[in-house]
Design brief:
This protein is an alpha+beta fold and 571 residues long. The protein is built from 20 helices and 21 strands. Helices cover 36% and strands 22% of the residues.
Length: 571
């Protein structure tokens, strides 16, 4: 008997604890999570529910101290609607409303004239304070309807990465950028205020334990640092103003983790007014969705393949004749000059196409092609952005000497800037290829934050090879680039330029007056915190990337050093 009593007490205790837990959870969601919605509901007369204003998760930037900075949020307010037959005096009503918030007269009076229509909307995105003033007027026939809309506090900041929300047919959805790629996570399809409390508890438990954090709805936390993003975009604005290229873009990435700190392009748009953009093509992210022949920034990877296989060493020399012929086609250095016996360091210092071809041929077609694949060229990076392209390296599927020669110095095959940035990051990461990513965590309604871990880096060359090529690139920056003008006393920088001819459509050769400029660098060179990639398509008034992009690179680099208080590696 005593045992039965104890059992009953225990069962009742468990039931009471469970009920208390449910009540606490429900109270949390009512007062904290959905509190504003309930307050809106309590405003009284002139309110109608609008089922189309579904809640949508927030997208955050992440400041250097870990603070979450809103990049895309839902704003809540009101629409002004009317019942035409109930509007007593259209002119008086219009004047009263227009004194509080601007009203389109053509829309207003056109709507009032539709006496047979039961409902017409005449103004949108009305603030709560203005809505209260309208409510106080008690105007016949006027309704206030709850409204919600997507707002981007940063305006143009990271627009191509964040994207925007719009309509596909009759459905409101994410159309570009993270808004599109993470749409299922960001979309809250039902009203959480009406969810069964048991279902709410188990849904949050499921989210907390899920193997895929993004499979559950919530806020999206990005790796983008807003001040670095602002610095990158300001630099791109300067490039556009000075050299008027058709397109300019850049990436700042942690070469060890693959975290994208900043990514942007010009021209761009404001997602708050995306419909005003002059060219919808600027909605796309060219650093992820575009392919180009990126030129001589490929040469350090060619050099790494040769060194890693033992085909060459830093002491290897070759006879530079200025031009060579492969598969019946002439390949020349940028200035057509012969330099005689040249060491490998000068191949990078002077960016010699014949030298890159020499290294590739010493390595061999088959092995060189294998390294191209190991470096991830011709493959998607897997970044959490829509429409990522795959690099086109079909030229290396054959065995034509000229195709392999061209590839050795970054022509004849096209890859995305992000693909190339990832490949070059292996030089900064002890020979390991990182996984570029722009999403770091999902924050659920319950407040639980789930980190999203990228795939681990993959070794693509020996650490010693990466160190050797890094030392060669330090020499390029210190001595060859602008004759050493940018050398730093307290920081080592590894860098290389690229100036590539732009191919004609349909494979009809190359334009003689159109070029793509590229530049990459990482620092501090032996323990890099950042890798920076910049490019400009068809810049004007300047011949080489060293003239157009070296100083912009240095501006971003010095900003990062001071902003993150990066310790010096030279004393």
């Amino acid at each position: 008997m005593r045992t039965d009593t104890r059992l009953r007490i225990r069962v009742l205790s468990i039931i009471f604890v469970l009920i208390a837990t449910i009540l606490v959870v429900r109270l949390y969601f009512v007062q904290i999570v959905h509190g504003q919605a309930y307050r809106d509901d309590a405003l009284g007369q002139y309110v109608q529910e609008d089922s189309s204003s579904d809640k949508r998760g927030t997208i955050f930037f992440t400041a250097k101290d870990g603070t979450l900075v809103p990049a895309a949020i839902m704003q809540h307010g009101w629409r002004i609607a009317l019942v035409p037959r109930d509007v007593a005096d259209a002119t008086t009503t219009f004047d009263a409303l227009n004194a509080i918030t601007p009203i389109d007269p053509a829309r207003f009076f056109g709507s009032v004239a539709k006496k047979s229509d039961p409902y017409e909307e005449v103004a949108f995105r009305i603030s709560s304070s203005d809505a209260q003033k309208i409510r106080d007027l008690d105007l016949p026939g006027i309704l206030l309807v709850q409204d919600a809309w997507r707002f981007y506090p940063g305006g143009e900041l990271a627009a191509q990465a964040i994207g925007f929300v719009g309509y596909r047919g009759d459905t409101k959805t994410g159309l570009y950028g993270i808004e599109r790629s993470m749409n299922s996570t960001l979309t809250f399809t039902n009203d959480g205020r009406s969810v069964n409390p048991f279902a709410e508890i188990f849904a949050n438990i499921s989210a907390a334990l899920s193997f895929d954090p993004s499979a559950h709805r919530g806020d999206v936390v990005t790796t983008i640092e807003p001040n670095v993003q602002r610095e990158l975009e300001g630099t791109l604005d300067g490039i556009m103003k000075t050299y008027t290229p058709r397109l300019a873009g850049g990436i700042v990435m942690d070469p060890k983790t693959g975290a994208i700190i900043a990514i942007g392009a010009r021209p761009t748009f404001n997602p708050n007014t995306y419909n005003l953009a002059s060219d919808p093509s600027m909605y796309s992210n060219p650093l992820v969705e575009g392919r180009w022949e990126l030129g001589s920034i490929m040469k350090p990877l060619t050099m790494a393949a040769g060194i890693d296989t033992g085909a060459i060493t830093t002491q290897t020399t070759y006879e530079d004749t200025g031009c060579i012929t492969r598969s019946g086609k002439k390949i020349c250095n940028y200035d057509f000059k012969a330099r005689g016996m040249i060491p490998m360091q000068e191949v990078l210092n002077q960016s010699l196409n014949t030298g890159a071809t020499f290294v590739m041929e010493k390595t061999g077609h088959t092995v060189f092609a294998r390294y191209i694949n190991q470096f991830g060229l011709g493959q998607k990076t897997g970044i959490e952005l829509p429409n990522e392209v795959t690099g086109d390296i079909r030229a290396l599927s054959g065995n034509a000497d000229v195709d392999f020669a061209s590839a050795s110095f970054g022509q004849g095959f096209a890859v995305s800037p992000l693909e190339m940035t990832r490949a070059l990051a292996s030089l900064a990461n002890d020979g390991k290829l990182p996984s570029p990513h722009i999403i770091s965590a999902i924050r659920y309604e319950s407040g639980i934050m789930r980190t999203i871990s990228p795939a681990p880096p993959v070794a693509v060359m020996k650490p010693e090879t990466a160190e050797t090529v890094t030392n060669m690139l330090i020499t390029v920056f210190d001595k060859a680039l602008l004759h050493g003008e940018l050398k730093h006393d307290h920081y080592s920088v590894a860098a290389k330029t690229g100036t590539a001819q732009i191919g004609m459509p349909g494979g009809g050769g190359y334009y003689t007056d159109r070029y793509l400029h590229s530049f990459f660098g990482y620092f501090p060179a032996h323990n890099p915190k950042f890798i920076i990639f910049l490019f400009a398509v068809e810049p004007h008034g300047v011949e080489y990337a060293s003239a157009s992009l070296a100083h912009p690179f240095d501006d971003i680099e010095q900003f990062l050093i001071h902003y993150y208080d990066v310790p010096p590696d030279r004393h």
